[in-house]
Amino acid sequence: MTKHRIFIGLILLLASALGLLLLFGRSSVSARTETELRPMKTLVGALQLTDLSIWTEARYTRHPSQADRFTPFQDFPSALEHFPAGSIMAPPRKDNQRP
Amino acid sequence: MRHLKILEYALSSLWRRKYKNMAIILVYAFTIAVLASILFLTHALKTEASFLLAEAPELVVQRVSAGRHELIPLEYGDRIRKIPGVAEVHPRFWGYYYDALVEANYTLLEANADHTPLEMLDGHLPAAPGECAIGSGVAAVRKIGPGDDLILVDSTNMGIVFEVTGVFRSPSDLLTNDLVILDRADLIEFFGTPPDLATDISVRVNNPKEINTIAEKIKRQMPDSRPISRSEILRTYAAVFNWRSGMMLSVFAAALVAFCILAWDKATGISAEEKREIGILKAVGWETSDILELKFWEGMAVSLTSLLLGLLAAYVHVFFLGATVLTPVIKGWSVLFPTFRLIPFIDPYQILVIGFLTVPPYVASTVIPSWKAAITDPETAMRG
Amino acid sequence: MECLIQTENVSKTYNARRPDEFRALEDISLRIGQGEVVVLKGPSGSGKTTLLSLIGCMSRPTAGSILVAGKNVAKLPERFLTRTRQRTFGFIFQQFNLLRDITVMENVLLPLYPRETRIGEMQERGRTLLVQLGIESKQHSKVYQLSGGEQQRVAIARALINDPEIVIADEPTAHLDSKLSVDLLGILDNINRMGKTILIATHDPLVYEHPLITRTISMRDGRIEGVSTP
User: Fold this and answer.
1) Co-location of A1 and A21 in the same domain
2) Do B107 and A89 touch (CB under 8 A)?
3) Is residue B375 pLDDT above 90, yes or no?
4) Edge to edge, what strands does the sheet with C89-92 contain?
5) Which residue, A52, A98, B26, B239, has most beta carbons within 10 Å?
6) Which segments of C133-195 does DSSP mark as H helices, in order?
7) Are B83 and B203 part of one and the same domain?
8) What is the overall mean pLDDT for chain C?
């Protein structure tokens, strides 16, 4: 007859665990911004980096912001794009291509 | 009191089919975890990118020839320098290198002129010809460290030896994983770039508000150039992981299909057993609203537990385990893929969205099918 | 004797104005007093169950009025109908209508969940009833683990848990052997002694020939055929 107590307890437990994680995350954001992001930001400035090094398989996935409009299509507009990472990221923005 | 007791009964009722309901909770929590992992991962990546790339060059000028990015004459730099409002112009030298040995692509980059020590680098940037600094991904895949030699094959098919003088620390993987930093002269010689050409040109302006005006001037004076401003870089990264991107679509589609199957199953499949139970409850004095409340609690218990479990799992997965389960999916063909050590940037709005996308539909699909059974006369229960 | 239930020209038609129209009850008028034990007797299809469900506020008559404790329930909206059913009646169904895979105690307490009774008090009442009926040792068993007679007792305990004025039993002996039927009549006798009015639909002579019965109403084809008082 105390199932509802157990249930409410479980929900509260889970919710507070999630809350604690989120709080812990919140507090670690500021600390890690200082210890990790700031030096990385310096790095971006010093090496003049323009992109994140996530997908290294093709030019347009390594440097999406620097990519030509056609590179995802292997330099030919109607060729099928075949790098898997290309299906994960959106194509380069149109306003990236000044007329 | 009444509500708590109906909740109590709902739990007893769920407990009767505990294995089935636990399986539903597990599958449901797993779906939510996948969904939330992707949202957490992309949001954290986006936030980090926007923070880091705020330091990217204000303007990068490429030359476009036959629709492709081409090497840009150094002379363009001199012409840009003369545009009023331009503070600094730096030709940039960089390129890609395919390492056939490990089948990985590296990004080769020139070392910048100033040698301020970098916190994220063990050792130092190449200061003399024959030296290099490498990202930890390159170091790992080639199994080399500071003091070792890195042999790369140049454009004339000659093996060139570089001494590793610095390795980037792994917290900076997201930026440096595949980098090989070389001395400028080494890099030009390695690629065999003609002496009067650079890869592109970075431009700093005096007044950030003028970036667009200057970009237009550059474009007008050199029609084959393509200026990319920092805000465009940032916008690219804001859009890289948007709702339209393939991963989102496929995962959402899968989740949606799974959910529809579940909802359909529930909507059509209110069993004779359940109908009988509702009839009995009505016969012993439960009102229609009590029965709907019972169903509401049943749906709530399952979906709320799943939601919380899923969110917890997603958080631990993305921010403590570096999204290891997702990595093989999003990695694609990248040989050098950084280990995510993401900073837990969380958008509360996203959590709300996940909650709204999962709990109310499930509760609705529990309550609505029993509606019809709940409004029928309890007399049917008398007839057995 | 105070009149507790009064029906006036009650009719019930199923599927009205359709080809499969079926007149289950026609012109039933009867009065049942407080503390009576009344048997409705008749072959199956004679309208016993329909009449019980009308009196028990499970459905509404097509015509006529039904007064329970002076209140006309024929026209009550569903909410009040449910409330009357909840407070005034206890039901013992032919099929027992127990939920097989929850415990005996939970089955007995079923009518009390949507009411304001505290859980502790609910359990106390449930235990008292189970003790009276001699099945308190089974309170944590699942219903499917019980014998037919035990299930019947659970159903009786459930019918009594809200302390009803009127107990309605539909073919209570249909699934019991003679010995268990006699036991059941003993239990019903006890219930009657507690001052409760009992309405039984049956075609089992063992029941309607029992000295406990104050009145027997014979039914056939939806009409009252005769009334006898032993």
Assistant:
1) yes
2) no
3) no
4) C89-92, C166-170, C197-202, C37-41, C215-220, C223-228
5) A52
6) 148-160, 178-193
7) yes
8) 88
Residue A77 token pair:
């507009």
Q: How confident is the model at residue A74 (pLDDT cuts 50, 70, 90)?
A: very low
In this predicted structure, the answer to whether residue B248 has a pLDDT above a threshold of 70 is no
Helix (H) / strand (E) element for A17: namely: helix A3-32
Amino acid at C138: K
pLDDT higher than threshold 90 for residue A81: no
- Helix ranges, chain B (H): 2-16, 18-52, 74-81, 136-142, 173-176, 184-191, 211-221, 230-240, 246-268, 272-283, 288-315, 327-331, 348-375, 379-382
Residue C167 bridge partners (DSSP)? C90, C198
Structure tokens at C42: 């008749």
Please give the DSSP secondary-structure letter assigned to residue A37: I
State the Cα torsion B140-B146-B149-B152 to the nearest 10°. 50
B207 and B323 in a single domain? The answer is no
Query: Mean pLDDT throughout C109-118?
Result: 87
On whether residue C104 sits in a domain, the answer given is: yes
> How many of the other CB atoms lie within 10 Å of CB of C208?
18
CB B154 within 8 A of CB B109: no
Q: How far apart are CA A84 and CA B174, in angstroms?
A: 19
Instruction: Show which subunits contact A, needing at least 3 CB pairs below 8 angstroms.
Output: B
ipTM: 0.87
The residues, ordered by sequence, that sit 6+ positions from B44 with a Cβ below 8 Å of its Cβ are B318, B319, B342, B343, B344, B345, B346
Nearest CA to B281 among C13, C162, C111, C148?
A: C111
Q: Tell me the whole-structure pTM to 2 decimals.
A: 0.83
Q: B366 is in which domain, residue-wise?
A: 2-52+241-382
Q: What is the pLDDT of residue A83?
A: 58
Please tell me which residue of chain B has the smallest CA distance to C44: B383
- Is B374 an interface residue toward C (CB < 8 Å)? no
Q: Cβ distance C64 to C74 under 8 Å? A: yes
Q: In chain B, which residues have their Cβ closer than 8 Å to the Cβ of C58?
A: 283, 377-379, 381-382
Q: Do C91 and B283 touch (CB under 8 A)?
A: yes
With a CB cutoff of 8 Å and minimum separation 6, the contacts of B374 are B278, B282, B288, B291, B292, B295
| Average pLDDT taken over every residue of chain B | 85
SS3 C2: coil
Nearest C-alpha neighbor of B123 from the set B94, B142, B147, B152: B147
* Domains in chain B, number: 2
How many domains are contained in chain C? 1
Which residue from B minimizes the CA distance to A38? Answer: B52
Query: Containing domain of residue A81, as a range?
Result: 59-96
B383 close contact with C: CB closer than 8 A: yes
Interatomic CA distance for residues B55 and A40, integer angstroms: 10
Residues B76-121 have pLDDT tens digits of: 999 999 998 899 899 999 999 988 888 888 999 988 756 677 888 8
Shared domain for B124 and B252, answered yes or no, is: no
Is the pLDDT assigned to residue C219 strictly greater than 50?
yes
**Residue B5 to residue B12: CA distance in whole angstroms:** 10
Strands B68-70 and B59-65, by their bridges, are antiparallel
The amino acid sitting at B95 is: G
